[in-house]
Design a protein that fits this description.
The protein is of the alpha+beta class. Helix content is about 50%, strand content about 15%. It contains 14 helices and 10 strands. The strands form 2 sheets. The chain has a 5-stranded antiparallel β-sheet with strand order 2-1-5-4-3, with helices on both faces. A 5-stranded antiparallel β-sheet has the order 6-10-9-8-7. Helix 12 runs antiparallel to helix 13. The chain is elongated and about 110 Å long. The relative contact order is 0.11.
């Protein structure tokens, strides 16, 4: 019996150390992976915007401002009135109708200027591809100079998005503030970031910071995740880069990142299969998750049902249920208790007690930490299972020992 108690104690300590070590190793591995891939993407962004590409961007911008001349028949009063009516229906059905929370009124977001109306009518309403796939429109063959340069840039930017997992690319003119291009063709296209409907957004602030820079060489400017209406009120982060050619600032490129950008790096097949045992996320200084939870990634329908069910009495989960995810909303609270299993303890918005490791993440522009965590119950189950197996072994050994002793006793004269 003394040996059994001593053996259980050794087993407990071994499992505590080994599970803590495994979680630390997982978190450190993901930290290095994310830092390396993020740096690579920044390097590839600068490669994308070569002098040749910036020259094409300049021509695209000229085509944008000459669009009313190239397509003059679209700018008469009757045509514009028709476009406004069709676009208003598009906004109501294809945009406002698909937002899950904090729906805007039409007049709060509907374009006012003739340029916006004509460009959005052409590239949003007449675009045959459904919402979420409008980037597939590459060439219209409408005879405009904008269409010609759009086809070259759209093809290159689509490839970049596919390879690197970004969400969108915006090109903004510094003099006017017009978004003269965006890859996904959302409702920010052709709007004005100085005076338009989205002038108070984080993308506008990041664009203006990049524009105001006096550096002779382009450098990046960053904005943390915030909810952006043209992306159906999903959280988006931004990386802005001034495009400089022959010492002239031609435009500002703004790269938009969704939570999927980081999730695709962190959530591999092993994690999806073992998410109950080990989860990973990014957190800010307020311990708020910057990504969706791994369960949402692995079991989206089940996760949505959990949000709705638990959100009835929890404001945080209720908001997450309306948005359809936990990114930028759900987090955890640190516990004041002592460490368990040599790990820190905390409680999630779902009231799950977790054990976690957090490591600072060295990625430019984002003050994040990598969080590796698992539930306390998972660790307790590991210990319970291991104890059961050890106990079974002890019982078998005890039976064998008893049986052996009995045989020896019988064989004695």
């Amino acid at each position: 019996m003394v040996i059994s108690i001593f053996g259980f104690s050794i087993l407990n300590n071994h499992l505590k150390r080994s599970t803590a070590k495994e979680l630390e190793q997982l978190t450190f591995h993901k930290k290095l992976l994310l830092e390396d891939e993020y740096d690579e993407v920044l390097s590839e962004i600068k490669t994308l915007f070569s002098d040749e590409m910036i020259s094409n961007v300049s021509e695209l911008k000229s085509g944008y401002f000459n669009y009313s001349s190239d397509k003059w028949s679209m700018f008469d009063a009757d045509s514009l009135a028709k476009f406004r009516k069709l676009l208003s229906n598009y906004y109501l059905d294809e945009f406002i109708g698909k937002i899950n929370w904090s729906k805007p009124e039409l007049e709060e977001i509907f374009p006012e200027r003739d340029q916006e109306i004509a460009m959005q009518y052409t590239y949003l309403f007449k675009n045959k591809w459904p919402a979420g796939e409008k980037e597939k429109l590459v060439l219209l063959e409408d005879g405009s100079s904008y269409d010609l340069y759009h086809s070259f840039i759209q093809s290159n930017f689509r490839d970049f998005k596919r390879i690197h997992g970004i969400n969108n690319i915006y090109l903004v003119d510094g003099a006017s503030g017009d978004v003269f291009y965006n890859l996904n063709k959302n409702i920010a296209f052709a709007t004005n970031l100085y005076s338009g409907k989205f002038k108070s957004s984080e993308i506008s602030k990041t664009f203006q910071e990049a524009l105001a820079a006096t550096d002779t060489e382009a450098r990046f400017f960053y904005s943390d995740f915030s909810f952006f209406l043209p992306e159906y009120n999903k959280p988006m982060a931004y990386i802005a880069l001034p495009l400089i050619l022959y010492n002239e600032k031609v435009a500002v490129a703004v790269i938009e990142l969704g939570s999927e950008f980081f999730e695709n790096i962190l959530f591999d097949e092993w994690l999806v299969q073992h998410w109950e045992g080990a989860s990973i996320n990014l957190i800010d200084n307020d311990n708020k998750f910057k990504l969706n939870e791994l369960q949402q990634y692995a079991e989206p329908e089940k996760y949505a049902q959990t949000l709705i069910k638990k959100g009835i009495r929890n404001k945080t989960l209720s908001q997450a249920a309306k948005i359809g995810g936990g990114a930028n909303i759900i987090g955890f609270k640190e516990s004041s208790d002592q460490k368990k299993f040599e790990l820190k303890t905390g409680t999630t918005a779902f009231n799950h007690e977790i054990l976690y490791v957090n490591l600072p993440l060295q990625i430019k522009g984002f003050d994040y930490q990598v969080l590796g965590y698992s539930t306390v119950n998972y660790h307790k189950n590991l210990l319970r299972t291991a104890k059961s197996k050890i106990l079974l072994v002890y019982i078998v050994l005890l039976v064998l020992a008893t049986f052996t002793l009995s045989l020896i006793h019988i064989s004695e004269p």
